[in-house]
Each structure stands twice: as structure tokens, then as C-alpha cells.
Queue: 4 jobs
Job 1
Amino acid sequence: MTLRQATPSDSALIRNLAIPAWETAYSDILPEEQFTYMIEKTYSDDAINRQMQDGHVFFIVYLAGNEPAGFMSLSHETEGIYVLEKLYVLPSVHGTGAGRFLVGKAEEYIRTLHPGKNILLELNVNRKNKAVGFYERVGFHIDRTVDEYIGNGFYKNDYIMQKTVKG
């Protein structure tokens, strides 16, 4: 597997990777109206470009043969804390280690920017998402529960999970 940092010209690719990943992750959790609202709010070209302008760094993971398989994004929220904003892999590559690879690369990226420092890595995950178990297996723990209003009458019902990236 290989990784490269995304640019604004990758917004369509990111959206095309996000939709099938989201369908697998959220079709049994979210009502269709909320799913559609969140996809448009988060993965339109404008939304992705705005996130990049706001400092979110996107990375795309490729399988052998240069086939895109998923993506992640990170943001630096406050001193000592990064947020794994997104981590999605195509359903066809679940179980291949692509998700674990992305988490490892997120940690490596943080260590490169903050050598020798311990940094907290946080993420939001829907409380009913099967990915909770994955995140626990790669070292995250549930820190707290949040219900965040996201607009249009919808809420995110998430866990905030954390792990320490040792410098």
C-alpha cells in the first residue's frame, strides 16, 4: 500500500471513495435523509475544498497497482491534540489492513511534525458504527459521548475516542 497527500483536484475521487464506504457504515444506522444531507454537507467539492482551506490534510491510500482504496483526513485542533476527521476504506478492502495502515500513517505524520512529544489523537465515531471495535483494536479508547446538532434537524450521536501518539 502507498499513501499520498490529496489536493483540491482530488475532491471527486474522495467523494467517490466516501459514498460506498458511507453506505456500508451508515445504511443501517442513519435515515436516508440524514445520510444524503451529511454526504452533501461533507463531501461536495466545495465542502472538501473548504476543509482543506481550513487546515484539514487529506491522504489517499492506494493498493498495489495504484488502485485508490480509501482516505483519511487530519486536523490540528489545539496544542497537543490532532483529530482524525475521516478514515474510510472501500468495503471491498475491509480486512486487508488498509484501515490499520491509515491509522499508522496518521501517527507517523503527527510524529514527524512533533518529534519527541506525546500528542493526543481524537476521532468521532457514531455509537452504532461497527468501526468502534476497529478503533479499539488499534489502540483508541472511548473518552466521552456527544450528541452534536449538525443542521436540518439532524444530530450526530458519537463517541469521542482517543489514543496517545507517543513521540
Job 2
Amino acid sequence: MKVKIFTEAGKSIGYGHLSRCIALYDEIYSRNIEAELIIYGDVDNTGLLNGKAFRIEDWLNVEYLEKTLSNEDYVIVDSYLADYKCYEKIALQSKRALYIDDNGRINYPKGIIVNPSLNYRHIDYSYMPEERVLKGSKYVILRSAFCADEEKKLNKSVSRGLIIMGGTDIRNLIPLLIKYICEKNPDIYFDIIVDSFQYAKLISTNKLNNVLYHKDLSETDMYKIMYSADIAISAAGQTIYELISTKTPFIAVQVAENQKNNIESLMEYLNSEISLTYNEDNFILKLQQKFFDLKQYENRKKISEEMEYIIDKKGRKRIIDALLGNIIDTEGICLRKVKKKDIIDVFELSNDDFVRKHSINTNKISWQDHVEWFYNVLEDEDTVFYVVVDSRDSLLGQIRFELNDDSAIVSISLSNKLRGRGFSKFLLKQSIDKLFSENSKVENIIAFVLEKNIASIRLFTSFYFKEIDKNGSVVKLILRRQDYENRLLSYR
């Protein structure tokens, strides 16, 4: 078995795609599976590739792929340059293909689509079977060093700063940042990440005592610098996910059109104004103001807390499981009590198009409203909240009971990976058994379902719920404990 990873990188392209492909490479290698990176571009950042099996090739043509691929190869493609013919050839000539996609660039052929970003809901993947589209925070890709569970200490004052404008500073912003941020903050020691070309130029022309330049960093060195930083200024590419994973307060600068989705996701998930675009009016003045604001401890503390649980650091494991054929482990599906770490998964499931369409309230839920609701629910003794997980603890559904005297109102929503596969009744029974056994005062379970949601009505009525009322388009059903226990006894 061999996995071939096709991507691009270089001075004019950047290194974000290569960075996340290296993370997938490491995950494959950790499973004792042979992997190879095949890269298009003028790569000079050799620190990223230390110890990796790679080739620099012009793979963006069908003829090359024809000669390179066999039907025993598993393939990952992370590209914004390859055309449909390349993807089609890969799909036809490989054992299984997986495509990394940030923005719905093309309609992909047969395979698996992974959108490893927080902002994915506006992209239409309806042409692909739902179980073949993996998207959202559960699939954010992090390099090995950034998967560590080390707890970052938030210092009261800012003594170390980090500036990184991607693998290549395509807008040449670093000289401006040195002049207007580093020089203006001599009490802060700055690590600045640059490419080889910038390094040679800056090391001779910008010799500030509070600045140290770095090039060709290994991921371990990059992690150490990021982990030690109190504050960062970063391009809005792959690096922002690494900053979030280390809970490093940062300002994100959009320097390319394909970073727009990342900026929008920051605005949704982090309730702080930490982003701007490199060419907007008064860019430097706005950046200086944001930097000043972020130096304040309470602002950094707020952002660091907002980053909690956005990324669970298991994305690359889930992606390689999917590539190798383990899209879902149905053997290990079970219920457990909800935990703080489930906040982002519950948010994404709650905002799933199918779930919202069949909810009584069809409006999308904002992240800020969700955070407030979620933490209130965790503290609420009158809410019993179970989540559905597989053996890898990946969240596949939620079942919630709101207790009121001797009654409990139930709501259930499942991931598209479980829908239509016969799990609803099994999981509903498990949750009701747990509720009745752990809450002796509950005598009735009530469900409110939209009249047009025939599948849910059938689910509840097949499970001994009886329709007792209808208010407009909403049907009210009830399950009485006595009826349920009598039914169970009759089957013994």
C-alpha cells in the first residue's frame, strides 16, 4: 500500500498547502504506511521537508499522472491549480482519491472531499454523496507538533511577539511591520519568520535589538516559537489554525483572495475584531490600534478563551481513516454525557442544513449565541444531554432532554453519516433507557415534531409515542413510562 500526495508550493504559491500535506504525510507514516509527496513549484523552504520522501515534479498534466499512478495507490490532492482532467485521471487510475478543498473550486469526480476549514457552509457539495463530504473543525489539519496537549500560560504582560506572513511574504508587508510595530514596541522581543530571500535582505538592513529573523524552521521549532509568543501577527492562511491550536492571541491579515473564508470564520467563531485586509484604507493605523488593544491582558484572555475547543487536533486522523476506508466505525457507536470539548461539534451539527430544515426554528445559529447556550446547558441540572460517538470519540449525533416536573422534552439530531442507516431507533431507545433509569421522577417524554417531518414522526410512533395534539404545523407526541415498561415486559 502506498499513499501519494499531490500539492504545490513555492515563492509565488506559498507553503500553506504543503504544510498541511506534510501533516497528513506524518499521520500516514505513523501507521507504517509508505507515503510520498509530489510537489509542483519552486520549493526552497527545505526545513519543512526534512526527513520526508518527496519529488519536485510538474504533475499538473494527465500524461504525467498516467505514468505515475497505479490502481493500488491511495491519493490525496491539495491544489488550487489542477484542472478537472487531472482530478478525473486521479479518480479513475487510483484505488481511492481524497481532495482537500477550501472554497468549492470545482465539482470533483468520484472520491472523498475534505473541507478542513471553519467556514464551509456556503459551499454546495450536493453533487457528492453526503457521506463522502467531510467538513468543518473536525477535519482541521495540524502538523504533528501542534497536536500536543501542552497548556499555554497566558502572561499578564506582553514580552514576546511573533510575525509570520506565510511561507512567502507575497505583499512584502514585513518591512512595514518592522517599522511600525517592532520599532514602536522596543520592550517586546519579536520573532519574525521569513523565506530565504527576505532573510538575506533583512539580516543586513534591519538590525533592531528586539528582532530575531528565522528561516527554514522545522515544525518543532515553529511550535516552540509560537507557543512562547504572547501575541502574533499572521497572514490568514494555514497558520491561523496553528495559532488557534496553541491558543496564541493574534491579528490575522488577509493577503490573498483564498484567505477570505478564513477571515469570515474568524469573525464568526472569535467574537473579537482581530482581522483586517492588507490593502484596506489606513491599514497600518488600524493594525497599530489592534496591536495596542491586543496587548491588554483582558483582551488577550478573552480571545484565548474563545479559542478553547474550536479545534480538537484529531482532524488528520479522521481524514486518513476516511482515505483508507474507515469513514465511520459503526461497531463502536454509543452514547455518553456531553463534555465541554464537544462545543464545536454540537454547533456544526446543529447548523447542518438538514437539521435546521427539519427543526421548528429553521434559522442558523450564531457562534456567540451557541457558546452562551452551550455553557448554560452544561450547568443546567434540568437538561440531560447525551452525544452519539464512535470508537474514536467522533461526534455523530446529539440527544437532549429538558426536564420539567415529571416530564422531559426530547430532541434528537444525527450526523448525515448515520441518517438512513437504521441507527435512530437504536439510539433513541438507549437514551430513553438511560433517562428512565437515572431519573426516577420522569414519567412522560414529549416530542415536538414538524408535521412535514414524516421520518421523525414515524420514528417516535414506532417507539410507542402517541400523538396527542397538533398546533399549526407542529405535532406533539408523548411516551408514558408505564406504557414503555409494559411494552418491554411483554417482549420478555
Job 3
Amino acid sequence: MNRRSVLLLLATVVALIGASLVFLYVRGADSRAQSKYDTVKVLRAVQQIDPGETIDAAAESGKLQLQPVPVADKLPGALNSIDSLKGSVATTTIYPGEQIIADKFGSQVQSSALAIPKGMQAISVELSDPYRVAGFVTPGSEVAIYHLPVPGDGETAGPPDKVRILLDRVLVLGVGSSSTTTKKTTVSDDGAETTAEIPQTVLTIAVTQEQAEKVLFAEDEVVDHGEVAFALLTDDSKVRPGPGTGWNNLY
């Protein structure tokens, strides 16, 4: 066999090997693509399920739906029926979009559903929408807390007509609804008064003992020390203590 024939044979073998590798790669890619789009139906929450709520009540109120999810995204233990959970209650908050797994249900609610940082405590503050940044404050947010005192003599109600920073950075643990409202009265140019009912929302925050005392004192409604307001922060937000702002330095 001459040299030319040997080279031709080698070229043919290499071409066959290359074609085989391309075929195997394409076949594997098709399989991977197929598995990516394969789905399985699991129960998912479409409305929030609160701690203590039974799985039966959640299902009856339409909070659960059987929905397709990619096989790769299915959680271990995800259920497609509530049969094995009947009579059990949610032990923690289950948010819309979550897959239903047995680990989040039991015979009783966990003693504490809040992830309170070590060494801190949780307190709740009831605020209207304007004072909680119109609903943009959510669990996990960090906020600054301002104090809006009732004008006084500086002894019974703090610095007169001064808005000041109370706490510069506080973690929000939870946001819940409240059945109470507050009344806000406005007076038009012609002297007519209009009173509106403003819904209140309960926000739970993580604080130290000293911080808790400050917040509870500042928002005391019995003595009327004023109100508190939240400011939503980012990692780059700059907050620092200061003399406060009143009529003497507003402009």
C-alpha cells in the first residue's frame, strides 16, 4: 500500500470518528434539552398561608393549585395531593409560589416563626401606609426610624417641633395586617374639614433592649409622645444622628 493510500485511509477513519462524536454530542444535547423542558405537577401556594392555618382550609379557600414545574426544579418531597397532610397546620409562613412540602406542616405551630438575630428581640409597631413607605417595606428590609414628636416643652414630649432620627438601621422581620384604622383630618382653604380612615399595618422589627425602649417610648399613644415613621434603606443609604429639623432650620 503506497503512502497516498495510507493517508486516504487515515483521513477516512478520522472523518468517521468525527462524525460519530458529532452524532453522540447532538444526541446528548437533545436529551438534555428534553429533560430541561420535562415537567411534573406539584401543589404550589398561590396565596399566602399563615402559621396555624390548616392545609384543608387553605385548599378550600383556593390557596393551593396543582401546577407544572420543571423536573429539575421540583423540591424533594414536593406533594401533588393534600391527602397525607389532612388535619395538619402550617408551622411557618408559606408564600405564594412555594411548593408544598410536608416539612412545613405539623400538628402545631413552631414556637417562633421569626428568625430573630441572636441577642436581639422582636417588637411590633403599628403604622399607616405613609409611615411605612407605602407598603414597600417587606420582611428582610432594613429601615431607619424617625420620631415625629408632639410639640411640647422639651420635657414632656421631646424637642418641640423637631423631627429626628431615632434608630439608624433596623431589620424588619415581618409585615402583618391590622384590623384597626387611624383618622386623619384635613382642612380646606374654605375651612371645611374632611376626615379619612387610614388603615394600619403591623411591622415587626429586630431590636436590642435599648432600641426597643426608645421605639416603645416614642410611639406611646397613651401619653402621646408622637409617632414614628420608617424610611426604607439600601446598602448604600447614609443615615447619621443629627440635631433634627424644625421650623428654626427647615429652610
Job 4
Amino acid sequence: MDNNLNNIFKKAIYIPENRLSNDILLAISDKDRKNAHIKLWVNSTIGVFSFVGFFPAFKLLLSDFAQSGFYQYLSLVFSDGHITSYWKEIILSITESIPMISLTLSLALVFIFILSLRFIARNIRVRPSLLAV
């Protein structure tokens, strides 16, 4: 029985062509290079949009700070000498006047921009040939 199995296994051994492994390796590297190009372009596009979108968001943040009275409450901290008696109310007023939506939007755009730059830098560092398209 062992002899029969050995003969069957010897006959069943597949001997690939000489170029087959090279062709498979080239196909894998081509697919990997295409995926790297796609990731580079997607991250670049996201980075550009977040950078461009930051300026209107920052302008909105500044106008929301001005409309909310944040600067007036903050100026009370530095102008009034008797802040020790009502410091809790001042701090609560300052925190309530912070425009959270505009601040969150601006910080999210900055975070997305920095994250996309990180992905782009890592992608280029791993595959320097991406720059020579």
C-alpha cells in the first residue's frame, strides 16, 4: 500500500514551468504598485480637500468666537481684579461661549490633513518609485 501511495505521489508532483514563478511575482508586484498608486492619489485628494476646506472653517470659527461673546468673557479674566470671588461663574461662561461645532470642524480638518500627510509620507517612503510615474 505504501508503494502504491509513493508511486501515486511521484506521478502527481507538479513541475511548474521555469517562468511561472517570475510571472506570478511580477503580477503580484504590479497589483501592489497599482494599489499603492490608488492609495497615494486618494490620500493626496483628501489632503488637498481638507487643506482647502480649513480656511473657510477657520473663518467660520473666528466669526463664531466673535458672535458668542467669548472675547468679552475672556477679557474679564484679565481686566477685573476681584475675579477670585466669582471665578466659577466666569469659567462656566467662558466654556459655554466656546463654539464647539466650529471648533470641532476646524480641528477635524486639521487632523484629517495631518493624517493624510502621514499616509502619503509613509507610502512614498516605502515605495520611492511612486514619485517617478
